[in-house]
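Hi F.,

I've been meaning to write this up properly since the lab meeting, where we talked about keeping a consistent format for the predictions we share between groups. The idea is simple: the sequence comes first, exactly as it goes in, then the structure tokens exactly as they come out, then a line or two of notes. No screenshots and no reformatting. I'm using this chain as the first example so we have something concrete to point to.
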Amino acid sequence: MTTLHIEHAIVDFALWSSAFDRFAEFREKAGVRAQRIQQPVDDPQYVVIDLDFDTAAEAEKFLAFLRDKIWTSPENAPALVGAPQTKILELASSR
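Output, unedited:
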């Protein structure tokens, strides 16, 4: 399993969540198997998202979609502040 890990500042969680929900079908079609949304306990204007895929290629393709089509458009990402930080991760150990 491969995880696309995304972190970024937001202006408002409800606004961000509404925009995130609009793209549920895109995530499903891209091969997202599971997703986790978290926030730091001391920062309500920051969000951490983990999207699980079967392969790194699927994660890379979806990241390209986010960079090209979503994060560059204020209509698609109205709550986004600045550029998201991303990493594509694979399990190194499961102790």
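Notes:
The longest helix spans residues 56-70.
The two ends are 16 Å apart (CA to CA).

If this format works for you, I'll send the rest the same way.

G.
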